[in-house]
Structure formats: C-alpha cells, structure tokens
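The authors assume throughout that readers already know how a fold can be written as discrete tokens. Each protein is reduced to its one-letter sequence and a matching series of backbone shape codes. I therefore recommend that a typical entry be quoted early in the introduction. For illustration, here is how one protein appears when written out as sequence plus structure tokens:
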Amino acid sequence: MAQYSNSKLLDRPEPGLIKWSPNPGDDNFLHVNLQHRVVQLYKPTGHARRGRFDYERVAKLDDIPPLSTYDWSPAYPGLVAIGTASGTINIINLNDSTNHYLEQRLKFTRFCQAIAFNNGSLLAVGLERVRNDQCLQIWDINRLTDLKPNASWPSLDGSILGEAVHRFEPATTVSSTKFFEDSPQTLVIGIKGQGIRIYDLRDPNGAVINYQTKCNNNLAIDYMDSNYFASSSLDRPGIVIWDRRATSRHLASPFYSDATETDGLPWGAALNLDRAIDINPSNVPDRGSLVRSIRFCREHRGLLAVLSRTGQLRVLETTKEFATWDGHYDHHHESPEILDARNSYELDMGFTKGNRKHDQIVSFDWVTLNSPTLTPRALVLRASGAYEILEKPSYTSDHIYKMVPWQAPHRGLEEGTSYHGLMRFDTTQYPEMMGSLLVDEALKNIPLFGDQKMPIATVVSHALELPPLKEDPDSDFEEKDDLLRSLTGAKTTSEKILALRRHAQNASQSRELSSGDKYMTNDGLVSNQQAHENLLTATLNTTGVPRKAQVVLDHVMLLRAKEKYLFDYPANINITSDDPWLKDMWLWVDRAAGAAYDEGMVAQGIDYSFLGVIPIWTKDLGRKGTSRLYNGSALPDDAAWERGLQTLLNAKTGEPSYGKLKTNRPARREVAMRICEWGKKSIDLEEKNSSSFTRAAARALFEGDFTEAVNILKAASAEYPELLFVSLALQLTGRGDRGLAKEQLDFDDTVASKTDPYLRAISALIATNNWETIANQESLPLRERTYIALRNFDDDKLTNWLDDQLWTAMKTGDIEGIVLTGITDNLVDIFAKYVEKFNDIQTATLVLSICSPRYINDYRCQVWRNAYRAYLQRHKAFLQRTKFEVESTKKSKHRGVPTIKPLSRQIALRCVYCDAEYELSSKTGGGGGGMGVPSASAAAAAQAPTQQQGRGTNYLMATSIHAGVSCINCGRHLPRCVVCLEVVGIPRSDKPELSDDAQVRLAAKFPTFCLKCDHVLHLDHARQWFARHVECPVPECRCRCNFKANPELNYH
C-alpha cells in the first residue's frame, strides 16, 4: 500500500487504489475508491490476460471513513484496517453488508501515515510525530477475530481491541511499515528524515537495526526472498533495495564491504537505483511523491514493479551478483549480498503520451498466480476507472529468433510459403528445443481462475507431448518488415491503406500521396483530378507486397463494409479518411442531407434536395423531374423557380455573396454559392506549414475579403518570411498600384508558385487581376473554382463555364463533380467513368441510393446495386448485405412509400446430407428454392399425384408425425442429438412434453446446430451441456462451440 503524507492528500489518485489479496490461497482483489469512499471486493472468474479480464463483484461497502492509508489482513481475508487523517483506526468487515465498522481512537489526534497486518493477529500503525506519545503502536486483534461470524458489529466499539501491546518510536514520524512474512514478529518501518529500522518483537531488549537513508516510503518486501525489501523517497525518482542481513560489519563479506566503502552503496543496501522511473523532479510543481508505489511479484524472486505519478509502470528484474568467497571467510551465509538489475520492461507505453490522462495508470498490484510457469502479470487501475491486465514479456519472447536459419530467400516461394523457417529437429529433440515456445503458446489463452480454471501441469505436459508442427510457428516472421508492422498496428482500413501508400511511395521514391496535399510532379502542378487518380493508382505497380497487404488491397470494399460504410455520413467521412476526395464528397452529402432534413429544401411545391449547382442554375429536375413536384404541380417556369429559391434563402437581406455583380438570376446564383459551401472544410491553421496559411488566405480572397487575406499572410510571415512579399503585393493590389505589385509577384512567383496551388492562385490574381485565370486553374479543387465562377462570371459566361466543367468531370470520372451535378442523372455518368477506372461500385451505389430510384431512373444504378449485393453475398457478408438492403429501402421512400420493393423473408431449410433447399414461402408446384437454386420440394411436387398438388401439400410434413421430419429428396432424417443420441425431429423417449417446466417443453421441440462442427443437439440438452462446458459433447471433436470472447457481456 502506498502511504500518503499530509502534502500528498491532494495527490492521491481519484479512481482509488487496488490491492490483490495478500493471502496466496485467496483469489480476490480490493478496490478502494477514495473519491466516493467505497470499498469493493472482486473475484476473478476466468481469463486474466492482456485484452481480457473476467471478474465479478463479491461485496461492496459504502460510506467508509476518509482514509489516508489502509491494509488487508492476510490471515483474516474479511478484515481491512483503515487509517485516517485524525489518527482513528477503523476496521471494516468485508463479509458484513451493514457498512458498520469499528473505531479505535488514539490518545492524541494526529495523522495516520501507515498501517500493516502481519500473518497472524498483529496490526501495526505508524503515526505522525507528537511529543508525548509513541508513533509506532501495535495491537493484537485476536479478540476481534475470535468473534462469531454472526456477531453484530454495531454493538461493538474500538475498546474491544484494548491497549496497544507494543509502543515504539517516541517523537518521530513513522512514514511506512511492513511485516516480514517468514517472520511475523519482525517488521520494518520507515522514519521520516532519518532512515529505516527493523524491529524484532520477540527481543526483550528491544534491539533495533538501523539504516541511514531518506528513502523511507513505499516499503515492499520480496515474497520469494524476505531478506530483501525496497523503499523510495518522496522527492527522488530512484529506489533502494535493502538486505536485512546487514546487521554487523564484521559479518559482512569483503565483497560487500568493498561495495559500501568504494562504490558509494549505503550500508544495508543491496541495490541503489538513482533513476528507477523516467521523471524529472524539477518538472513536478508540488511536493507529491514521484514514486507512487512499489510491489514485488509473489512467484518470481527479485521481480518488482515501480509505478510513477505520471502512470509509468516499469518492471525491474534483479538477480544476485556472483561473488567468489575467500577460503578464510566462514560467514558468507550471514553476509548481505549485492543485487544487479539485469533487465527492465515497460508494461504500458501510454504514459509517454501526455494527452492520455484518462488512460493513465493510477494503481496496480501483481496478480497471484501460484505458478512460476505462467507469465507474470499485473492488475492495473486506470484513471478512467477501468481494470486491465498487463503482462511482462515472456522469457521466451526472443527465443524463436535464435533458431531462424538466416538464408537467402529461395525456399518455399513456389509453394507460396514464407522463405523464412525454423530449424528442423528430430522428434526426440523437438520438446527440448521448442518446449518453452510450446508451453507459452499453450498457456496464452487458458482461464486462470474460476470454474474453468485448468491445471497448469496438465496443460504443460500436454503441450510437450505434441508432435512437431508441419508448419513453422513463425509463418508471419515477415512482420518484422516495417510495412507489416504498420498493418498490424493499424486498426482501420483507412490506416492500412495509408500504410500501403507510404510503402509504395518509399519503394518508388515518388511524391507523397497519402495526405492529399502534394500536387507536385517533375513538370509542375497537376490537376486536382489527376492528383486523385495518382493517389488511387499509387499501389498498382508496387512489387514485393506481402500477403497481408494484398488481402487489404483486394478487399477494400469488404473491409469498409464491415466498418459500417453505409448511410451514416459522418462515419463515412472517417472510414474514407485515406482518400481526401472521398471525404470531401461525403462532407458535401452530409451537409446536403442536413439541409434537406424535415423538408428543409422544399419550397413552392418543389423539392430542391440534393441538387447541385448546374440543376439549380439551369432549372433542371432531371428525367424523372415530376417526382420532385408536390401535389401534382406542373413544371415551374423561371419565375416560379426563382420564387422557390428565394423562399429557401429566407428573404436574406444585405449584400449578396456575389457582391455587386449584375445577374438576371440572383436567387439561383445565391443558392448555388451556398451549395458550394456545403463542401467547404474548416481551415486548420495548426498544421504549421506555409500551405495552410496560403490556403486560408486564398479562401478569404475567393470570398472577397482582401483584409482577412492580408492579415493571415502578415501573421504567417513571422514564421515564413517569403509570405511577407505576397502580403505586401496583395496590399498594393488592393490600393490599385499595379506596377509595384507586379514586381513583387515576379519575385515570389519564382519561389513558391510551382509547389502550392493556393499560392499560385494568389500570385495569378496579383499579376493579372483576372478571376477567369484562377477559375481555370485545375490544380485547385473544383468546388472552390465553381465558387469563384459564381461570384465573378456573368450569366452567359457562367453557363458556358459550367457546361465545360461538367463535360470534363464526366470524361474523367471526377467525383468532385458532385458539387456541379448533385445526386442527379448527371452524377450517374460521372460515376460510370469512376467505376470503370477504379471499380468502386460500393461508393457509387451508396451515394446514388440516396436518390435512386426515388428521383433517378437509370438502369446503371440497379446494375451497380445488384453487383454490390452479390459482392457482399459472395464474401458471406450476410449481415452487411442485409443492412444495406434494409437501409437503402428506407432511403428510397418517396412521401412515406418505399420505391424499392422490400425483399421477401429469406428463411429456408437445407438438408445437411443432400444439400437440397426448401424455401418456406414457396408453394408446391411453384418455382425454385432460395438463392436461385431449384428446391427439392418443387422437384417432388412435379412427380406427386395431381390431387396432392391441388391441395397444396406441404411435403416437409407429408410423412407420419411419428416418423419424424425427413428430406423428401434423399429420405434421410435429421441427425442424432450428440447428447441423448436420439434422432432430432422424432418424439423422444424421455417425453419432455410432459414436463412441468414450460421452458423445457418449449426447448425440446427445437434442434440446435453448431455452424463450425455441424453437430446437432436438442435445445434443452444444449443448454444443460454448455452451462458447464465450452467444447462440443462429441469426444473426438475439439470444437469450442460455446466459446465467448467476452463472457461479461449479456448474450441473452
């Protein structure tokens, strides 16, 4: 238990403290919540490994006294002693649900610094210094533990403990205390500002062993070798490990004496680490302890973990230094020994990220496993209140690399296997050479607690008896490659694709494409559409791509579908984060959908939703335009169209967005400019590069705000001086001094205009003052060029320019054209070329399903929809296919009625022997079975008597009920239940239909099938079997039919 001084009360971790039971035979852990004053007792129930920890709460006590320290009795697991700031000692009983506790008051009120139980009935309390009383007091709680289990705690008071049996240390502050397990009458205490002392309560003379040190906090004793104990100080990041055998200098070995005299090792210390944790004391604003707690592992000698206040959890592995004893020295067994820190491990690297305060580790303790074979693991409590298991790296983690024959990559390529492999061993040598790896693998995923706990010895012996593997266990050895490490660490498909593109860039030494911000080639700036095409084709010609990477490239649509790439537009923006152009498109769709919500784009009986700039400007509702008209309205004329758009603008007052430009279509132009703004991304000036500032300045300039553009460039010039000239030139342009501005432009143009499209646009405006030049600069996004054209071109010029851009978008398959077309018929033409180039029928189907067939009637939309459904079906993504069909049907609703006919129920029976299918909804003499396969029922109906066909006989139940359900194609019955061995579907001999339990009567009627091993059970038998087992009831089958990855979740 980490102790807290007065200055540390405010430094205590809010989520609380955790402690594993000090009794090795008691598998429980305690959580003391300091903020809510709650004590909770938990019991592990299954797995305890990284990524999975099964536990359940056993007891909870509310409203405990405010504590400064606590300890848990190893001899009496129900007792917990709490020390308070007033010096009152409270003892709570975890087995008592009344929330009452006993109070033992002191003669003088003072801060309780430390408290500790021994293996018996002693309780030691360390107190703050006072003049007239001892500060180390020890009680015997034997009278309390002799109480009957049903004794009433409220009827007792602290006087039942009586007076303290031992009193030591007058006028000192005891900062920490611990009892030795191998000697329950011996304890070590830390004295603030003085050192460490060891008391033997059996000594009538009261002899004390003293060690001078300032490391007198966080005492922890090595369970495997109680001669060693560790301590730390409040203001140092180091720790000291002590040897309690250092009692007399004449008993110390020459080797130890030399270390204390010449190496600066304090007397009594076995190891002095000045920096056990990575923390700089000067960066800590208060006086809180740098080391939060120290714990020794119970199963491994010399293995301790240190937790810092920043959440760093470091494990130190110490061993004894080898020393040769001279022949004349006879007391080497009584001499203290030197330790050496051989290895250190970081259990969680999250502490290095300062923005992860909610995931910071605030408390920990080692898990008692009672087996040195298992990998040591610690239970940690994070600042969020979550529990997690962290494992120390296995001792065999690097064993496999020592047996890899590093040869040239020539083996196994023809067979498609890895060219790296392990050495081959004889059957007799295999267990000895590979035993450690086999044992680690066998113990990796087994439950360690609860009813499913497996005997470690049995698992180990079984692992060592396994025959040599036919395949190398390091078949994924290529993951040492940076690309595969990136793929393994990537959690989303977009991250994997970005890793592949970075790999392609490094392999070809080409420009960076993954961010979408690099437009440069050897010949200068390319068009924005060409930059997108370069991005999507970056991995086509990359060689040497490993299998895992190939899987990602070949199944992008499937992986995105599994990430719920559907009709959640904000989610789609995140899913397609590897493609900035797709992100921009979904951003436009998201804002268009927001504008159309609750008929927000309906005016004058016309539905303007999801229309682009060109349909708004040209009054084009598409080939199915009547579907956008309400109440049988006629197609609007120009005046009605303008009135409807003006209604959408909500009679906006003030100067329009296009300034003083003369136009005959003011409402159309204003609405079209708003449509362009739907795809406008927020400007992030924290990217800290010149392009981010020029982008912001250019956008301000495009909107006509010269002052804002100049201010942005002036602010950026402090860090990027070359932008100062652009700022000055822009100011001169605003004043009308054309000559001097041109000189500044020439200087700046030679520096940066060929690398930054926005800077080039600013330079072009300064040089020519011609907005047409900028609108035709294809390196700029089409949305921004369209906005420029709407703001600066007259009506006729704008119409011609829009037509040219639409033709270009259709020719190149530029999905940026959605801002021009909206989700209309013209977008289908753009997607046709896009699908032809990149085969992305998924994106085309999802976008067009928003308005097709509601407002679009094009056979290509149906073709892509069917192709996408077949793709998901082919890859057995049944859930994703069903969700797409359901959601797209909802999207097709036109005035509340779906325009896509909902599919019929897709439930069918299939014979497990002949594979014949029987569609439940099919009628005798009708068509085929499910999924386009002719059903056996239809075949049988063709051969059946005519009178039976006329009656519509159900051939699945044509035979006698007592003969059971049988296949009419092959005549076979259902399989046998693997528990009772009776045929499923035939009346059972145990007659469950006569049971008094309604659930039994109901469950007995249904069979259950395991989709992995195909074995069948009656439902009631399955419930009884899998209530206690995970594996299949068939002896030779090793299928884990009832495996649950997260049993703590509610599966019912």
Summary: Residues 508 and 542 are 8 Å apart (CA to CA). The two ends are 40 Å apart (CA to CA).
